[in-house]
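Today's session is about reading a structure prediction critically. Students often jump straight to the picture, but the first step is always the sequence itself: look for stretches that repeat, for charged clusters, for runs of hydrophobic residues. Only then move on to the predicted structure, which in these notes is written as discrete structure tokens rather than atom positions. Here is the chain we will use throughout the hour.
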Amino acid sequence: MAAGAGTRATVVIVNWNGAHLLGPCLDAVAKQDVDGFETVVADNASTDGSVALLRRDYPWVRVVETGGNLGFAGGNNAALRTVSTPFTVLLNNDAVPEPSWLRETLNAFEDDPAVGVVTPKILFLPRFVRLSLDTPGFVPGGADPRELGVRVYGVTVGGEPVKPLWERLTWGPEPGGFSWTRPRGDLLLPTSETPGAQRVSFTWAAERAKDVRLSWDGGGVTLPVGTEPGETAFDLPSGVERLDVVNNAGGIVLRDGYGADRGFQQVDEGQFDAREDVFAFCGNGAAFRREVLDSVGLFDDDFFLYYEDTDLSWRVQAAGWRVRYEPAAVLRHHHAASSGEASPVFQFHVQRNRLLMLTKNASRGLAARQVLRYPLTAASVARRTLRQGLAARARPDVSQSRLHLRVVASYLRLLPAMLRRRRAIDRTRAVSRADLERRLVARP
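Below is the predicted structure for this chain, in token form.
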């Protein structure tokens, strides 16, 4: 797996304090059923012993020490500048590829020389049980028109904390470390593959004492919930169907300029088993022809992490290359293992980088509308927070307003550089902005 005359591809993995993730990832890379590739880990100045682990347990891995935390964009770029193989394939340190992943990825380039990037089918790492929740709902009234169910503070399976997939059931994280559910809906519960029944525990509360019905295929249980946070457990029987769930089947960009994972949180039932072109690749598992990176350039270092792959996807297509989704190339992903989707780091970079991406790549109309809308939305959030604080006679939570101010300040600081890069993209453009925006999709 070291580089040599016959080396066709390089697998690049960025790592920052991910010693606990590298073992499963690299063990899976070692099991790839294809020869002729090398593996490079770009280490972003980890302090958890990652480099020592690599040198001790994985001597076949070439380590590039970047000297600082350069993020996903800068870390990949540091490694990519050392690569000369015909193909380069990126992989997150929290991903576990199937044995045929690399072979199927490289095969996808063979039938069309216009394909510049191949992106795989990404499944969530665990398998899931579908649970249906049903409980009496209520509307708080006042400034909050939502119909609510229960407050969920945490879920464990076998005594270990887990992150259910419940985007369609909950209203999202709230101050206080909980999420309100809707009165009814489905969640996907990650489970282990150990045999036998598994102990499942919910820590939750509600506006009053009431029952919650949790159902699964072939069974269910009715559980009490009180007004103060408390733990309620039940045994999920063995034999309940475990499901694969899609994390990403290629990327899309919505007409309002938001990027999204195609198929996100959908149970994998074969609906994404066709090879096809997509607007955007996912940086986890994406493979590039060397000519693409030579002509289009690498990731934008200023993005640090998030939206850097969508930005590069836009530039790749502007240069006339195609992005191909290959469903036979499968990897499993521990989603948001490094940063967490509710973290300030995630929120800052997602919000800022979307505006930077549009400034560089979108038409003037789309970019201007979204950039100007951002401070208006931020002001609306600040007003709502202030009203809620006054109504509760409590100090308003200004964390979101501070985040919005940081985003605006950072965007303005980087705006001149983004405009220069926009002009540079136009000088080598093969596909117009208007033609690319026809590929954007309506919000569901």
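Discussion point for the tutorial: The mean pLDDT is 93.
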